[in-house]
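User: Please predict the structure of the protein below. I'd like the answer in structure-token form so I can feed it into my own downstream comparison script.

Assistant: Understood. Taking the following sequence of 170 residues as input:
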Amino acid sequence: IVQDISRQKRFELALRESERRLSTLMDNLPGMAYRCLHQSKWPMEFVSEGCFSLTGHQPSDLTASDGIAYGNLIHPADIQRVWEIVDGSVQKRQPFTMEYRIRTEGGQEKWVWEQGWGIWNCQGELVALEGFITDITARKQAESERLLLEKRMLQSQKLESLCTLAGGIA
């Protein structure tokens, strides 16, 4: 018996090429793409290779069933606000966007920006959250420095005005 499987082989090649392209795109993102459960601590089902540069953890550390839950990386002062934003958006079936702090494997604090959305099955049940997280620490530091410089400039202008007023009175 002979069976022509050339069509099946073309589909397999096309699938492998599609997976390769997706993998290359994910690996080149300046952050971490993810898929997680909408549960306390957000257990991860998938994280891209950018996980390591963002968190200091290998992707397998976050996706293993006995691994590190992403929620444990979120700064304790931010965790409740993050949960409320995500849960509120999921309830409304809307995407969510937020900024918060995480702690890396080395103990460093980083600011991150996250955008995500819920994924529902045919029955309308929420099955996962998918999204993207990127490091915005440098931007936050620049904002902080700019605010400090503006405050100093304002103080300088007040002193200059006061000197001008004192000079005028004298």
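That's the full token string. Residues 75 and 102 are 5 Å apart (CA to CA).
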